[in-house]
Specification:
It contains nine helices and 17 strands. The chain has helices at residues 23-30, 36-44, 89-97, 162-173, 248-255, 264-267, 306-315, 334-360, 363-369; strands spanning 2-6, 9-13, 49-50, 53-54, 66-69, 99-102, 106-111, 143-144, 153-159, 178-186, 193-197, 200-202, 211-213, 221-230, 234-241, 283-291, 297-301. Strand 8 (143-144) and strand 9 form a beta hairpin.
């Protein structure tokens, strides 16, 4: 999302990730402070425009279009500042125990599996409810910048001020953020590395709780690389999402026939291994790298959870091999290696035969044969 200002009027250029979505959906993603009532009023009064023409909240937007938005305003029903949540000593200790990085603008937590990032129906325990324990000496309450699935572990970025949150959010939307995930998947992908380019949509009848490959859905791209194999039963893979769709990595790996270990939602019964390997989801946000508002780069890695570590040991995988996965050569598939070795041997044999024929054609050799 690129942005420009003219006399306090804001102009945004539609990025490829937002191609085809409704205008009101775009506001939810990028300007959540402008609620539906505000957007509708801007539309009715002609203040909301697409490429200079009046626009409605239900209009579909296209990559490259310019959205004209009036100056920011507070909603009429703005709520009073939220009162701090009273946390117990145990909750404060737990929240601070998740902290793996702290600076003037950012906090990074190593979120454990099973802990939701935000609350919901029947969801009392979540990261957002613990952020008061992490305000420390900052003037504002910390703010979530992105999300991880409840059962996904790993690096979670939290901004320490509204200005830092805006900068971090822009880094995510403009793809200046690199996210590397580790996963154990069922079976071994045929290709050692590749990019899965498969649009994703909400599965009808599931209340938005489950996604599925949908040609008419939102663009979704994931890069993967096989790091190690456990025979043909499982593989340790690194994943790099280029887009941030709901359940993207889980849907993509299941779509190519290799669901993430423990992901019964998308892999069914085929997503589990026997032999005492944990049935929990084996997906971990290992590394997060993005520009820091303070200058330089924020580059953080998060240690694996207990169940993931035990499964790595049980399957004979080496965690260190997964760091900087896309800057290292991928392991060669044994079948491909065998074919290459065979071709190299045949080539050497052909060279030897050609050399032998040349020697036979030399004068000295011909004389000897006579």
């Amino acid at each position: 999302m690129s942005k420009a200002f003219t006399d306090d009027v804001r102009q945004f250029t539609v990025e490829r990730d937002d191609d085809g979505i409704r205008l009101d959906r775009w506001f939810k993603r990028h300007l959540p402070e402008a609620n539906f009532n505000i957007v509708s009023r801007w539309s009715r009064t002609g203040q909301l425009r697409l490429d200079g023409k009046r626009a409605a909240p239900g209009d579909r937007i296209v990559t490259g279009q310019v959205i004209r938005v009036p100056p920011a305003e507070k909603p009429h029903n703005a709520k009073r500042p939220r009162a701090p949540i009273e946390l117990t000593d145990d909750q404060i200790e737990f929240a601070r125990g998740l902290l793996i990085h702290k600076d003037r603008s950012a906090l990074v937590l190593n979120k454990p599996p099973g802990l939701a990032v935000q609350g919901g129906t029947k969801m009392k325990d979540h990261v957002d409810g613990l952020l008061d324990a992490l305000q420390f000496d900052a003037k504002a309450r910390p703010r979530l910048v992105h999300r991880l699935d409840k059962d996904t572990s790993g690096a979670l970025l939290v901004a320490r001020s509204p200005s830092a949150a805006a900068i971090f959010s822009k880094s995510f939307s403009s793809r200046k953020t690199t996210k590397i995930y580790w996963a154990i998947v069922i079976g071994v992908p045929k290709e050692n590395e590749g990019v899965i380019d498969l649009a994703i949509g909400k599965q009808p009848g599931m209340g938005g709780e489950k996604m599925y490959p949908d040609p008419e859905g939102q663009t979704a791209r994931t890069r993967y690389r096989v790091i190690e194999r456990a025979g043909n039963s499982a593989a340790f893979v690194a994943l790099q999402p280029f887009t941030g769709r709901t359940h993207q990595l889980r849907v993509h790996m299941a779509a190519i026939g290799h669901p993430i270990l423990g992901d019964g939602k998308y892999g069914g019964q085929n997503a589990f291994l026997t032999g005492g390997v944990s049935r929990k989801l084996h997906l971990h946000a290992r590394r997060l790298s993005l520009p820091s508002p303070d200058g330089g780069k924020l580059d953080i890695t998060a240690d694996l959870s207990e169940h993931f570590t035990k499964s790595m040991d049980a399957l004979g995988f080496t965690p260190d091999d997964g760091d900087n996965p896309f800057q290292r050569a991928a392991p060669l598939d044994p079948r491909i290696a065998k074919k290459k070795a065979g071709r190299a041997h045949a080539k050497d044999q052909r060279k030897a035969r050609r050399g032998e024929r040349r020697r036979r054609g030399e004068p000295g050799e011909r004389g000897k044969r006579r």
